[in-house]
Write a structure and sequence with these properties.
Largest sheet: none
Radius of gyration: 35 Å
Strand content: under 5%
Oligomer: single chain
Structural class: mainly alpha
Length: 149
Amino acid sequence: MKKFKFRYESVLKMRIDHEDRVKNELAKLIAEKQRLDDRLAELREGAQQYDQHIETLMTEGDTYHERFQINQGKRYYKDQIQAVLEQIQQVTHEIQKVQVKLVEAMKERKIMEKLKEKAFQEFVQAINDADFKLIEEVVNFSNNKRDGE
């Protein structure tokens, strides 16, 4: 019996590989966003602890130098939080782009899989037609042979 061979198998494999690469890219971006979210949480907690530290310093009194350091510390946390928020926004935008690419890659793969399924159905139908034709020829030959005797 003839074996089914999809003509565009290499194209299907290429599209599956492309989809896998896009999935990996998306996973990396999601991991990066999670890392940034964790960093943001650490910074916010650090800022909160710093504010508590400032409260204790304020009760003890402060000097100009201490106020300068306090302002520097507050500015540091504010700048770091802002930078991480901007990075998160950028990564989120990149994730959205990659998600669109993934949807397109999945569509392309599905198209090829549907073509493969259709080709397989045509292959099965051709085999069934050939079998039917062979059976019909055998029956006709047997009937002709009996009628001829």
